Amino acid sequence: MVRTLDLARIEYMVTGSVASSLQGEPRLTHDLDFVIAVDADRVPALLEAFPSPGFYVSREAVAEAIRTGGMFNVIETTEGDKIDFWMLTEQPFDRSRFARRYEEEVFGVRLKVSSPEDTILAKLRWSALSGGSEKQFQDALRVYEVQAGVLERGYLEEWAEALGVFEAWKRLVAQAEVP
Q: Is the pLDDT of residue 130 over 90?
């Protein structure tokens, strides 16, 4: 997937459970989550990167995601794997976390990954948006526990307040088991 995006010259960032598994506690996930920076003139390259019959992607869903700053998915047709592509928006947190991504080598492939701080914040936000998802909260907690010694606490607290997840942040810190 990463090589495909690189060949299509589409800027991306790995997020979601893959990022939290790399930075915290590994867990199985049924999809891959990417934030991508793509505009309407890059749609042909994006669609060509995932050709039929090996992949299913809706041109209309891609256009709608670009128009609304939403998401679309690509389905790998032989195994049924799903890739969720979230559009990079102009929202300050989106811009901040995309600018802070870093590279990590996984199984011989260089990935651009959400920073641990941004993974924690995104997971706390998803937990809140999904009505208090404990799975999202636990992902954030495990990243915090593993990365505690290198995290930028000021950044985390500032964005937790701005994103409306400061209470969840305080709960996370209180529950964390760190040396």
A: no
